[in-house]
Write a structure and sequence with these properties.
Elements lengths: L12 H10 L3 H14 L4 H8 L3 H14 L24 H10 L12 H12 L6 H10 L16 H21 L4 E13 L25 E9 L4 E7 L4 H15 L5 E7 L16 E5 L14 H5 L10 H15 L3 H8 L8
Parallel strand pairs: 1-4, 4-5
Antiparallel strand pairs: 1-2, 2-3
Helix pairs in contact: 1-2, 2-3, 3-4, 6-7
């Protein structure tokens, strides 16, 4: 029978278990797990195998714990974050704080900050003759910055109205549930999206050293995708329509009511924007659809807005001869999207949609 390894009595078995379960550092948690196994009579070899470390590393953990106690289990790498792999930082604390404030404004040339521009700033600040562009990128990451495209926000959007809408939507749902006690109330969001023969160009993955090409021909013929989404489930309904006006929207409402199963047992709260044809007096809204309008100039509150990147994917970097060709591709795409409920739910179920 293998001889049990010696374990110093710095902590009891239950205390070792508590350390293992509550430690947030993953490296330390694994070390405490290993020591707890040893404290329960496991051999070093079996304990190491159970927690996924080598036998030699297990003996090292045990030796450090026996000699230094709790301090011997600490993850020392956390204490060396001030240096990048032991290399002296390019900026001292004062210079780093200066860059932290500077990066929140426009770059000195009035443009956008980039890795090379940060590197040039470091050269001037430190007097170094050469700082590689990559180091500028490193410092942007060190400042907890990432390269992102801003979400457009209309300057006329009213933040107070937007917050009020978020808070009142669950109350509106509850009000309708009380009004239609014998019916289910579903919340759907609706929007339109224009696509056409004007090319859509996007970045794609391609082999290093090969610049991707897209055949283009700018023409201006369009069709519209009318999209309905229920964020809580990821369900969608789609309609390809040649125009946006109250006549076509009335027909789409009629088709939507049929496809969604509108009845005395099912009512729909339909949230949409303030487009003129959405508010037309000539618009025919089926009984059982209750329309709720978003605050003016608030596209960021419209979950259906996030559907369009998915809709556009098969059209990206492609050339189409006729609008009918695009229609065929979109018809297939919409059928595929109807089965992508989990992905669409993750994309559209905003955190503030807290109705039930």
């Amino acid at each position: 029978m293998p001889k049990q390894a010696f374990l110093a009595h710095h902590l009891s078995t239950s205390e070792l278990k508590e350390k293992y379960r509550k430690t947030k550092d993953l490296v330390e948690a694994r070390r405490w797990h290993f020591l707890w196994k040893v404290a329960n009579g496991w051999t070093v070899k079996n304990s190491a195998l159970a927690v996924g470390i080598s036998n030699s590393y297990g003996w090292k953990i045990l030796k450090n714990y026996n000699e230094k106690g709790i301090e011997g289990v600490n993850n020392k790498k956390k204490e060396s974050k001030g240096h990048l792999r032991g290399i002296k930082p390019l900026l001292n604390d004062q210079q780093f704080k200066k860059l932290t404030k500077l990066i929140k404004k426009k770059s000195p040339d009035g443009g956008l900050w980039s890795g090379p521009k940060v590197a040039r700033w470091i050269e001037k600040e430190t007097g170094r003759t050469k700082v590689w562009n990559q180091r500028g990128w490193d410092y942007l990451k060190k400042l907890k910055y990432s390269w992102q495209k801003p979400r457009p926000k209309h300057r006329k959007g009213d933040p107070i109205e937007q917050e009020s809408f978020k808070k009142n939507l669950p109350l509106r749902v509850k009000e309708l549930q009380e009004k239609f006690k014998d019916a289910t109330v579903e919340v759907w969001f609706f929007d339109e999206h224009r696509v056409g023969l004007k090319p859509i160009i996007r970045k794609v993955w391609s082999p290093v050293g090969e610049r991707p090409k897209a055949v283009v021909q700018h023409r201006y013929e369009w069709l519209y995708v009318y999209g309905f989404v229920e964020p809580k489930t990821g369900k969608t309904l789609w309609y390809l329509i040649p125009r946006v006006n109250n006549k076509w929207l009335s027909l789409v409402y009629e088709a939507f009511a049929k496809d969604v199963g509108l009845s005395e047992k099912k009512k729909i709260l339909l949230v949409e924007d303030n487009a003129g044809w959405h508010r037309s007096q000539n618009l025919k809204v089926p009984n059982g659809i209750i329309v709720e309008f978003l605050p003016a100039y608030s596209p960021e509150l419209q979950p259906a807005e996030r559907l369009w990147t998915l809709v556009d994917e098969p059209l990206v970097n492609e050339h189409f001869e006729t609008i009918e060709d695009i229609e065929d591709v979109l018809a297939l795409r919409c059928c595929i999207l109807q089965n992508m409920t989990e992905e669409i739910k993750n994309l559209t179920n905003y955190h503030w949609l807290n109705y039930s």
